[in-house]
Design a protein that fits this description.
Length: about 260
């Protein structure tokens, strides 16, 4: 994965700072602590990849959870008709439960990525459980045909302590995002709002977070065609996250040549 080490990561924190941050979070109350844990800015050992520095209009759609049978094909149809590819962060147990869906996603050229095995919060999880959650999902994705480095994104973006340490030891970035139109700046239940937020927030190198597979997210599914069409009209190429990373590596190599 060329250029991975040179990308735009948030700085890591020292161990002592980590303890102080946790203590401060607890002191600030449960809500503050939850916000701290979910924050993409705080990660103690591993490195978070939110966006890559890209020299042109290129972005990645990242679709989390599943695969679930109810809406998978509908989502694939939207992407196929527009000839764009996305990165699917899939849950290992659902990958094992629905190999036919995983095969369909892969057959369309999308990237398969790891979103843990059980989608349990990885906060305060034992180190060996974290390793097992990630390895079982890697294995399931490899059996489904995914080759090369497998990208990882934690469920609920909980990233304190054990998980960043594991990722650091295994040399993997924590793939997050810089555009989350379903939830930021607040929950959106309207497809038009989700489209507008995406088109307003995207920048070259952006990673866009969406959950179209989840049963409850009809607004996201309704927004998906408008998101893709709008981004294409703005001149964006939509690529997989691994392609985005490779693109950034090439841009950097040209810049330093
Ligand atoms: Zn998830």
């Amino acid at each position: 994965m060329a250029g991975l080490s040179d990308l735009e990561y948030r700085p890591t924190m020292a161990r002592g700072t980590a303890v102080a941050v946790v203590a401060a979070g607890v002191a600030a109350g449960a809500a503050g602590f939850r916000a701290l844990v979910k924050s993409r800015r705080w990660h103690l050992y591993g490195r978070a990849l939110r966006r890559v520095p890209a020299g042109r209009r290129v972005a990645a759609l990242t679709l989390d959870d599943g695969p679930y049978p109810e809406h998978c094909h509908e989502i694939l149809d939207v992407l196929r008709r527009r000839r764009v590819r996305a990165t699917f962060f899939l849950v290992g147990r659902d990958v094992e439960a629905h190999p036919e869906l995983v095969a369909a996603i892969r057959a369309d050229g999308h990237e398969l990525a790891n979103h843990s095995y059980s989608h349990r919060r990885m906060l305060f999880m034992r180190a060996d459980t974290i390793a097992t959650e990630i390895r079982r999902t890697d294995d399931a994705l490899r059996r489904a045909g995914q080759t090369g480095p497998i990208l990882f994104r934690p469920p609920n973006c909980a990233k304190l302590l054990g998980l960043p340490r594991h990722l650091h030891r295994t040399g993997r970035p924590m793939v997050t995002w810089d555009v989350e139109p379903e939830t930021a700046p607040g929950p959106a239940a309207d497809a038009g709002v989700i489209v507008a937020r995406t088109l307003a927030g995207v920048r070259p190198g952006s990673l866009i977070l969406l959950h179209p597979m989840d049963q409850a997210n009809a607004a996201t599914r309704a927004a998906l065609p408008g998101i893709v069409d709008g981004l294409l009209e703005q001149g964006f190429d939509l690529v997989t996250v691994s392609e985005l990373i490779a693109e950034a590596g090439r841009a950097q190599a040209r810049g330093s040549a």
